[in-house]
Amino acid sequence: MKLKFTSIILLLIFFSCSNKKVDKFPDDFAWGFAVSAFQTEMGNRNGTNNDVNSDWWVWTHYNVENNTGRVSNDLPEDGPDMYDLYESDFALAKSTGINAFRLSIEWSRIFPDASGVPDQKAVAHYHSVFQSLKSHGLKPLVTLHHFTTPVWLHDPLWIIDKANHGNGPRGWLEQRTVDEFVKFAEFCGKEFGGEVDLWATINEPMVVSIGGYLNPLPGNAFPPNELNPEHMVAVTVNLMKAHAGAYRALKEYDTVDVDGDGKSAIVGIVQSMTDFAPVDENDEDDKIAAQHASYLYNEWFLNAIAKGILDSDLDGNGEPAPELGPSVDYIGVNYYTRMHVYRLGQLFPYYPVIDFLPRYPEDCVTNTCTEMGYIIYAPGLYNVLKIADGYGFPIYITENGIADANDALRPEFLKQHLQQVLNAIKDGMDIRGYFYWSYVDNFEWGLGYSKKFGMFSFDPVTKERFKRPSADVYSQIIGAGKVE
Ligand code: GAL
Description:
The protein has helices at 2-22, 37-40, 55-65, 82-94, 107-110, 120-135, 162-165, 175-192, 205-213, 229-253, 284-307, 379-389, 410-426, 470-480; strands spanning 30-34, 100-104, 139-145, 198-203, 266-278, 309-310, 319-320, 330-343, 356-358, 395-400, 431-437, 456-458, 465-467. The protein is of the alpha/beta class. The strands form three sheets. It has an eight-stranded parallel β-barrel, surrounded by seven helices. A two-stranded antiparallel ribbon has the order 6-7. Helix 4 runs parallel beside helix 6 (120-135) and helix 12 (379-389) packs parallel to helix 13 (410-426). The longest helix has 25 residues, at 229-253. The radius of gyration is 22 Å and the shape is globular. The two termini are 40 Å apart. The relative contact order is 0.13. Residues 36, 39, 203-204, 207, 272, 334, 399, 437, 444-445, 453 line the site of beta-D-galactopyranose.
């Protein structure tokens, strides 16, 4: 009898311990912030850190100077100046309790022109950045392409100023850009492999292709701002090739295992994922629209690089494409919102799955929305993680965040979304880390500085950083290993 009683007690202890275990984030979970080079590096008062050699620099300056209305009037050189301030920024970021940091290397700084000769000052700069991350105990996750392309490969004005730029290089429409990107990846693997193990090849390829070639959004135009579905498809396929080539280059040339886990290069993609839902959930057509939207935006690219299946005519059926994949070690998920779509019928008959439109702007009367006009919907994070998990690779949440200047919604946003991450882990999904977008307010592309995603703000003149209260909420969650 006594024995039975003891074993019941032991069983109870066992279950309460194991429950506790799954109620918490894993001990080795990566907690971090995410930033990108173009959005955060510039801002030095003397302009000495401006990088004038990327397409986005040319794009924003042309549109602002010509008052085209395509983008805001803000300019990247008024940013938080992380190029100078990275050391104190990493110390401040670390003080929240994080152990990792996602940033990007600016391709146009390393290779400012077509000569193929790297700029040694820029190379030395990124070495210092990685040394600084190391000294603060922050593991780097390094993106090679975060929206910006060197202007010697992409003249972003070739559509909107045809008279003067019509013959300019056409970026991701050209095989040359693919080849040069693979060379850039090879260079980074060799040069920075001793400091970096965790790589992301391309940030949100579907935003690059849809944003650039199918984007109806006024006021937040992505270069080159053409409405051309064939080009959208061609650019996407070239980005798939670029990813696969860069994956192989990093695996081959980064041979140094920095953290001693037996792996010298862990290489993934960063995929923007949206939780698509039908506008009318009882309407069969709208349901199909939601499936098609998810297929196009969330799955098409991943099918190519994670399964080696390419659907080049967007009819919902792919062909084997072993040259494209599998070429991932993990999937990076960026999640911001749910979006409602409805079916419109064939927009482009030769691409059957493009037959829907989003309800835009979203319904912010009955839903709480962010300053971006995005619906806040935390269960959508779980839904897209489930899609990513279906590919069978580990997952990092490489971006999740909210534009919220007053920090009124961010604390709850953070808790709700992290609870969904924990639910996903409990349900067996292999999620390795979470990077909040963003560490500090920064240049939100066509929308400039009006959208404040940072857990820290900055003074536009002194560049001093100020902590928002949600940074303490983040610290608390990291410290406890759970959402309370
Ligand atoms: C992502 C992008 C980031 C940042 C964020 C906030 O699409 O990767 O650079 O702009 O959205 O909107």
